[in-house]
Amino acid sequence: MLKCSFIEGAILHRLKYGKGRGQNLAKAVGMKSNKNRTIVDATAGLGYDSFILASLGANVTLIERSEKIHKLLQEGINEAKEYGGHISSIVNRMDLIFGDSKIIIPKLSPEVILVDTMYNERKKSALVKNNMRLVREIVGSDLDQIELIKIALECTKNRVVVKQPRYAEPNDEIRKYSHQILGKTVRYDVYMKV
Ligand SMILES: C[S@@+](CC[C@H](N)C(=O)[O-])C[C@H]1O[C@@H](n2cnc3c(N)ncnc32)[C@H](O)[C@@H]1O
Known about the structure:
Blueprint (H helix, E strand, L loop, with lengths): L9 H8 L6 H6 L8 E4 L6 H8 L3 E6 L2 H17 L1 H7 L2 E5 L2 H8 L3 E4 L11 H13 L5 H11 L3 E7 L13 E4 L3 E7 L2
Parallel strand pairs: 1-2, 1-4, 2-3, 4-5
Antiparallel strand pairs: 5-7, 6-7
The site of S-adenosylmethionine has 23 residues, from α3, β2, α6 and α7.
């Protein structure tokens, strides 16, 4: 059964062993130095990327358009708030909004925007990815990804970070990224504001 939890499971492993601000996600959003970013996660999903960013000091606004996923995420956030301590202080930096980022982002003019839409070829491996397959069964494919990235590029004050499987096809319909951060299975295409 699909569940969102910040108090147990794979996310806690990622929190503990994720290399802090040295991890690729943090580098991609520009948190490697002491800077604390204000970030919009345009594709919240189960909120795991946002949770890691908030654990590093970022204030994150999460946007999710699937009613079911939004509800699961809200339940996960509520449970973490009740849990107290460090976990609760992390989720207190996460602000969840229901709706379509294509409509909401222009009203927010965010500093940093993270985009991690459903990619068709995501393969089985770890627990988080199993969860992602269950998310896909609910939300399907995000066929408006390019439109979302274009809106994000217009509205960002600093950068747009597009998270994709490492060997995903390049996004030919948008301008070339400013730089890339490559991991073993995931890559981040970073588009600085021009
Ligand atoms: C791959 S998942 C994101 C996983 C997330 N990064 C995490 O760590 O859990 C993609 C999610 O983005 C949502 N989504 C896609 N396009 C969206 C849009 N335009 N506005 C809001 N949510 C969107 C989908 O409903 C889905 O839940």
